[in-house]
Amino acid sequence: MRSLHFNRAATAVFVLVLSGCSAANLSPPQGAAPDVRIGARSAYGLGPVVQPKLAGTILGFDIDQHGNDGVLANYNTRSLRVSLETFDQTTGKVTKLVQEGAGSSGDYVVYGILAGDVGFLYHNKYELMNPVTGEKIAGSWTPPQSFEVSQVAENQSSATAVMLGYNISKSSESTEVVAADVLKGTAKVIPLNQDLFSTGAVPVIAQDSATNQAVIAAQNGGRYTHPVIGIIDLQSGKTTTFTGLGYGEVNGIGVDTKTGTACTTTGIDAGIEFYDLKTHKGSEVQIPNSGGSELHSGSGVAVDSVHGLCIVAQPVSGDGTQASAIWVVNEKGTSFEEIQGFNFWFGVGPAINPKNRIGYVVNPRPLYGTLTGFSY
User: Fold this and answer.
1) H or E element: which one contains 98?
2) Percent over 90 (pLDDT), the chain
3) Range of the structural domain that residue 98 is part of
4) In which region does residue 341 sit, left (phi positive, over 0), alpha (psi from -120 to 50) or beta (all else)?
5) Relative to the CA of 109, which of 128, 141, 253, 286 has its CA 20 to 30 Å away?
6) Whole-model pTM?
7) Backbone angles phi, psi at 78, to 5 degrees
């Protein structure tokens, strides 16, 4: 899901408040350092804003990486109404109010767009938009018994979707990975080592569709310890682990399927890490102007495999303001670009269309009622 990380069972209202922040103040901060550009583009900076037909709080969204469509779910705390809506990536205009209903009937939650423009969502059960451009719910998916989805790894290239979730049949919810073909209705459950990847370790997951692997990262014991990285063979179910770089909780993760490089962000030292998934060797850089401060660390990550870039959401930029930024960094960690003018908090991550070099992020806090586009 490209929005706030949450457990579906706990979804209701997201009202995150940071004292002194104004949700309406979206202009770039004064006196900001000049941007370091990566390559030449015809467009750069903020893009269109998606205003849902139903005003409220966005509960998940995604955009198609091979088309021009997007989908979002929304919840209005005053009217207690919920909606499922599609939008145009280029203009930001809502193309259809697909579903609208009373919140008492259950929230809509968008987990992501899968390969073939298949929208994966939840509304009392796991449902499919096949395709999203069809602008209607056209199918459902039955999970393995007692499995509840928490995250869906970004993958719009292969039929196998990787999901991180919980087995709720046990006294303490154990984390599991499911590799599923939602159209065929097949699913494989892969148990995780609870000493490394339990709910308390706050794991995040990505997928390498080129090697049929999942990559999972988690806090390894404490705030000032290096995280643990796991590579899961989706065929055999075997997990290989190694010690990562940076410190504390891993806030975001993505994989470049062309180079076999994983990109993560760590919460204690404002680090961005790059790992060669074959050799397990890595390198780390810090977000510019962060001073290695936890407050200025990165959040969600999206990886552009077309251009070899890592797109990082930074809730509190390090330029002396409380504004948010999107950072674009190459996989060597040697070239940065900052896009300013956002206002979000931790748990937020971008969705991108690498072909068109555009993206969207849920914005602004505290209500997260719109999506703000950007070009990079």
Assistant:
1) strand 94-102
2) 83
3) 8-19+33-375
4) left
5) 253
6) 0.89
7) -85, -50
